[in-house]
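Entry for the shared binder. Reason: the reviewer on the internal report wants the predicted structure included alongside the sequence.
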Amino acid sequence: MAKSSNTGMLQALQWVVSVLMFLAMLAAVAGIYETHFIGAGATFGTTGASLSILAFAITAHLWIRSLACCLGVCQK
């Protein structure tokens, strides 16, 4: 009986991590918008703009992997 309780807790933790990763990805999208379009207009090629795109790519990848684990197709 204790094993099923731990499994449920683990699955709940995976969903919490997935939601947090989704929020981090949304923050990265906001960072992309802010660095590319707010301020001096449409600017490309700056360090901040490049790092915001990199942050979005990393958080999107991690969110997709955590969502896959939540859905049961986790690769270990």
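Summary line for the report: The chain has two helices and no strands.
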